[in-house]
């Protein structure tokens, strides 16, 4: 932001300072809104089409060529729908919740760098900021469920809160591993640390034993925090109708959808930043061309992560509540803690091959132990009569 | 013109008083706890303000603030657990009804 | 940054006031969250970035949620309370004590030379890295003590809250 | 080589530390981890055993007695440093090897005995701790450390005797054991204090400055009752040993300790608890003999001699008339401990300790064997309801027979040699004690024969309870059966030692550094000893072997012969009842007396003072000060009451009221601040 301010100030010396200030504020905000909301819109389309393919059907294909204008039609439809507020609802909270749920999702993008130096604010505590802001969504979820005065909404909200709070812990711990390795909380620096090596690729943290584990943890935690399949219990249609947004319609409902998608994409963005080298890739670097290539890589990876999310959604069944909680506290959290130890080992062991062997061994042992410990009783062999 | 330290101190004092008023006047044990949280936070704000104005170079005050936050978190966890236990016993969280120890 | 201070202060005080005066418990918590965020903003303003993030992470993300859960668990789902007990002795005495205390504190602060201190204007930034180093270097024993305290509190809270369930079984 | 010993002494602490760590680990195990717990326990003991044997072998290589110590400062107060230390000398090495070895096999047996118990983990945790405490006691070169471990042994015995605490008798027994030994410990502690006071050190050996090395000096100093300091300390210490080693009159806890699981009994009777007392006396032996000679023995050593002799005889008589298989063994332990103590009292450190060793092996064997019998007969302890077990449990029978012959003193079993030496050394000192001991040996042979015949001979009488009814329904499950391998293997191993250990008596004496001397009356004593043993066995055969019991309800043949005396023996000479009637009654009576004194005398004095004051005030009132005094007093009372009432109002029980007062207090402080500035 300060860079933009300086740039504008240099380019337009005659303009009053306050306008430059405002412009410097607005440009990144506009960028974030423009880019990410567009991505959001097309993500919905891609998701529907991909799910359609996975489920052996076509998906939307009526509006525009290949149904490409479907998001516009959706948006128009939802804007025109009646906004219903239940009579018993807590009006204030009911109104505030959908607004509030979009905010954390958008705020996270502030610290996600898309190209060298191109981050809305290069906070010294960027990672922590992203994780901290993410927690605020809990409050919005709770408000929505509670204000609706609907038992399904409240149940969904309580599930959502419990789920998000539980998965927050392993996610943050997985992030801690990266912070330890990079020695900084700044997202920009973390991405820069992942540059170099072969084709700007080999130094990505995901290509480290602890990084791979952290990546898996982070992806799982991100899925759970944005309440996506297979962790979509808060809005499990078969049990809770629509969960916390049962009583929402019209544009407020759209805001909920948006908030969810934005949060999911934000988690994907943070994942890319922390583990997949952010904008790093062959050819990325400073300057205009390098910057464009960097942006290509970043958004390419982001799209890849989104595609992964969609893929998972299309192929995985939903977890049970007890499995959900057990998984967070009995598998992910211990693994995240073990992973932190692994980073410590990685840091202090020389030479590198030794570190590779020891860290991989350490993590492998624990993965096996945790799997063994958490393996449920083997299912009895069933005999089906009508085969 | 910059804000002098006194402003922060007075802000903290006001917040402290508000929290105290909440803790003193409300019947609901949970709100009493919330008032105590407000008081805690105002005290920590004081710490950070002093750090910013007087001891900017060393992070000790921040460490102290972190410890205080951790202890406050533990306190609220225990306090709420107690509230729940009391609720189970009295079917109420009204602090006026918890007077077993009356002399 | 003057305006920022005044706005944030107003929000913070408003949040605190609402938190202790609103009738609806859940609204109280929401106001309390506003207060917490205001405090966090103050930390950012005071350049204690790390502390601000910690404030949001712990208070908004954990403590507020804990309070919400407590409200839900005490069977007060709608969060409403009985009739307002204004004008009671309790209300007056409590408010009076708080008000007198605030006035006295204000007097004390204004009467002190400390109140006039201005920021040193130093550019030095106490970063998260410094805090981390201090935590594991000179302050490792308090850190461990806090760790033990938190563990004990965790177990204690579980035990206290579980006690009657076990009895009823 | 000396360096090697020094190193070993420095490593002595490992021997108790390993079981201790094992106990610590086991205490954290979940209840379900049965195999793991037992495994840790046995492994720990095995490792300790290996270490102890290593130390034992190292000391064995030396022709003369060796002693290596390792002292370190525990903490300092003022100028005095409190040292603790470990020792490696033949006494310790042999003892540690015995404790670990016997303990190991007892643990193995316990895995079988406790098989059905649900608190398996807790049991093995306690066992490990018990062994650790005993080993700490054995290797300590410091009377304070010894005392700490001593108390720990007491604690563990409490925990283990009361292991089945849901049984009232077990709960009572563990309390009894704890309190009775505690009475002795008072003496022990006084002895320690006196020792520290006189020598300014608690180390036993420390290159000439240790407490024991100053024993001769202490013998010159005057102590209590006209004894020397050394004798006084020795007497006090012996009181402690009497409690621990169950010497009359503090023997009452030992038979009751049978309430614990049988492996615990084996551990207490053979390897750990009771051996501690004898070992301690042996360890502190220089103090006992300091200042005395064969012609003029010290009081301490005389006391040891006669207490031992009396206990030997006394307990042997009781053992004759018991029906509980473990109780017979318990009284025989008492009796055998009497033998050991008596040997020490006769100045025979070597025979005493040797008898301790052999006895540990065969008594552990007998107890474990009785445990096997109990398990094999489905938790039957009454010998009248056994019988004919030879057919059902052949391995147990043969091992038990070895142990019985050893205890009865039949050559060439271990007990014969050690007991013979004990009798021989006693013969030199006191014909009276020797006579008592020989009679006790006769009784020992008799009651062991009685037990053998009752348990193993004849036909199975266990079904009598259920009568024909049960048999008619085909309840064949009550037949006794042989025990699994993990129970019979330990007794088989121990029986080898019960047979063969006696031949090493001479070597052991050499090992402890005693000179060879030709003692008078050797042939007479040995011959008589064999004779009484044979006589006892014969008598046992005559009474119990020729015609075994047929039904469980049949009267004991001896009962018919002895009549009232048998009942008297069966009730243990009424010692418990005597204590109940005397000491406990007396304590309560004293309490009553003091209460009466308090009420009548002290209160009386107070009341009279009150009356005097009242009278004076009466006079004052009469002379016209009624208004002042009366009014003033009433007002005072009112004020106190009123303020008390007010204060209790402050205690509203409402947290917010307290909170408000807190706020008010803060305001007041601030106001004070303003006023001051």
Description:
- The complex is a heterotetramer of chains A (387), B (103), C (169) and D (677).
- With 387 residues, chain A is mainly alpha-helical.
- Chain A starts with a helix and ends in a 13-residue tail after the last helix.
- Chain A is globular and about 55 Å long.
- Chain A is built from 13 helices and no strands.
- In chain B, 76% of the residues lie in helices and 0% in strands.
- Chain B is built from 3 helices and no strands.
- Chain B is elongated, with a radius of gyration of 17 Å.
- By secondary structure, chain D is mostly helical.
- Chain D is 73% helix and 3% strand.
- Chain D has helices at 2-10, 14-28, 34-60, 90-113, 120-139, 143-161, 168-199, 215-220, 229-244, 253-256, 262-271, 273-283, 285-289, 299-320, 325-345, 349-376, 389-392, 394-408, 414-429, 431-456, 467-472, 485-500, 505-512, 522-545, 557-562, 564-570, 575-650, 655-676, and strands at residues 68-77, 80-88.
- The chains are: A mainly alpha (387), B mainly alpha (103), C mainly alpha (169), D mainly alpha (677).
- The interface between A and C is medium-sized, with 28 and 26 residues.
Structural key phrases:
heterotetramer; C: 169 residues; mainly alpha; Four Helix Bundle (Hemerythrin (Met), subunit A); 3 domains; 6 helices; 75% helix; D: 677 residues; two-stranded antiparallel sheet; 2 strands; 73% helix; globular
Q: Which helices and strands occur, and which strands form pairs?
A:
The complex is a heterotetramer of chains A (387), B (103), C (169) and D (677).
Chain A: H1 2-11, H2 17-54, H3 70-80, H4 91-108, H5 126-147, H6 151-182, H7 187-193, H8 209-225, H9 237-240, H10 250-275, H11 287-315, H12 321-348, H13 352-374
Chain C: H1 2-21, H2 25-45, H3 49-73, H4 89-110, H5 128-137, H6 140-168
Chain D: H1 2-10, H2 14-28, H3 34-60, E1 68-77, E2 80-88, H4 90-113, H5 120-139, H6 143-161, H7 168-199, H8 215-220, H9 229-244, H10 253-256, H11 262-271, H12 273-283, H13 285-289, H14 299-320, H15 325-345, H16 349-376, H17 389-392, H18 394-408, H19 414-429, H20 431-456, H21 467-472, H22 485-500, H23 505-512, H24 522-545, H25 557-562, H26 564-570, H27 575-650, H28 655-676
Antiparallel strand pairs in D: 1-2
Helix pairs in contact in D: 2-3, 2-5, 3-4, 3-5, 4-5, 4-11, 4-16, 4-22, 5-6, 6-7, 7-9, 9-12, 9-14, 11-12, 11-16, 12-15, 12-16, 14-15, 14-20, 15-16, 15-19, 15-20, 16-18, 16-19, 16-22, 18-20, 18-22, 19-20, 19-24, 20-24
